[in-house]
Fold:
Amino acid sequence: MKADTLRMLAQHAVFVGVVLGLWEWGAHTGFIDPSFLGSPLGIIGFTLENLANARLWGDLGYTLLAVFSSFFIGSVAAMATGLAFVTWPKLEAFCEPYVAAMNVLPRIALVPLFILWFGLGVGSKIALGVSLTFFIVLSTTVAGIRGVSQDHITLTRSLGASSRQTFFWVTLPGAVPVLFSGLRLGLIYALLGVVGAEVIASERGLGQQLAYLGSTFNVNGVWSLLFDLALIGVLIMKLMNWVERRLLHWQ
Structure:
């Protein structure tokens, strides 16, 4: 590990240590009300206790199932729609007003309808996640494909490549960098949508557990789950970055 990396990690460790130390000191001396803001030691205690609870792992699996299902469905549907829009511009021109109207609609407001249609189970969470993922991936798919150099496409066709070969050898590889930025955002929005729907109404999931802890004024528990969700988000981003590096190793 390089010296710069070690120095940066040490700086972050000192910063986090100072913040947590001041927070714990404030909660211990009464300068901060721990019933409203919690305390680091209380959060650590709850986290250790919760890690031994099978309910946490069950809810984590429930939430991740909904996140990855909504991301997969929303991304595949968006890429297929984006490809259709690029292939048939008249179709895009016809659908553009409807897509724009649905895109600006606050999707969280659809949760009551999704619950009515799909129930309190995982279906309504996947529906909200799909609605958030779809439009982000759709816009980057269209932008990525249209951003491919026309000179490269013209040269490939002049060399005798078919439309299928041109798409898979030139268009798709050229669009991957832009497409991945949308996929990365889509996965994060899928997580936000699923957890948001679970907080509103759900049978299981980290969001449901978060809502329960909040309603019982367990501030340390709320902080603990928020840190868990932040860690999940960071790990998801690391996974996407790793996949992107593997696919774009030729750049």
